[in-house]
Prior knowledge:
alpha/beta, TIM Barrel, 2 domains, three-stranded antiparallel sheet, 17 helices
Amino acid sequence: MGMKYHRNFYNFEIPYKNGALLYNIVNRNFVFLNKEYYYLYQHLDLLEKDENKHILNEFMDAEFILDNSVDERNAYLRNFYFSRWFSQKLLFTIVPTTACNFRCPYCFEQGIKFISMNTNIVKKSMEFIEERIKTFKPEDVSISFYGGEPLLALDKIVEFGMFFKRLGHIYNFKMNADVVTNGYLLSKEVALELYNKARVRSAQITLDGPEEVHDARRFLSGGKPTFQRIYNNVKEVLMTGIEFVIRVRVNVDKTNIGHLEDLLAILSELPERDNKLEVYFSPVTGESDKLQRHPDSTLFSEEEFGKVYVDKILPLLYKYDFDYERYPDLSYVFCGGITPYHYIIDSDGSIKKCYDLVGRKEESIGDVYNYRDDDKRVLKWELFEPLGDECFNCKFLPICGGGCPYKKMKSGKNVCEPWRYVLKDLLIKIYELKTSEEKRDEKTATGNNI
């Protein structure tokens, strides 16, 4: 009889000390195998022996080893296409205005026309939204307010928020809402209004470094600084007592990477930050062909950013007691733009498929006055095939989902996520930090008991 089991295709094995680190990219199980377990993992014929069946069961419970009747690769593809075409969740991104009070030099929205939703566009947008909800009958509806700077149109956000609350009662769906803002106008009073009237439960704001560094990159349209105002807003919102999460995004390039520790040190001093303050880092993006033509660019390539994240950012998150144990998310569908379930409603009433296209009318796929599911502009996105032959055979597919469709449409090439280049280094770093943390906690506990 042949072997009845196989190692999961989506396992990552990293020889480490006298054993190995074993990680599964789909279920995110992560363990250290001692020498004995690693040897048995490598020799499945030995695991099938009666005396080792209990160890085999441990591996199977964690799905590191599978029965041969299981095809994990086709199972992922089944879930990929099921998630793409049969979602029970609808997502609406609403852009109440493309106007902005900042003039950040790296902003992708440079050059777009400032437009705010008028009364008629708000009305037609609401009619479009209700029609979509009637059509899809979702169990969950997510709303994100985006811009421009959406808080310049706070009244529109509140109006939409109250509208969604009414629809939730009529059509029996759960709703959650968030806002993507530069943070300058997110005062305590504004946060409370968003929370109470529009059911907004989180805000993404941006800080690009300590005061001097941030203010050189993110300043008001007249050139005035913004750091202190944003920082004080975050502090006051955290102290309101409401369950409102602030997600601090840090845009990273080669000019501010050396100042991230100063920023984390400042953020670590904020009160009431447990479970209500998150920090994450994202590379300032640019076209990959430009990076190749200009090797002295201040931008990081995907591979460079992955290395910076592991070598510099992770240890700083650990040092300042922020969540460092973050594994790549499972990504059945990388982008809602290739599904029928995500609509970006721009401030002029046009509908987009990608955040990078906000404010660019020529990239519309329709509008709230006349939207057709069979429009060729819609089908260009919703029938786009994000997975090439190389993707089907890639162990990283479950955390990539084929990557950014818009970039692939433009270049004709797959654009791999940074994880591809650094996953093994990331896992080793997380394991070592986690081990260090456990030792630190043991030492603290021992000290407390004396």
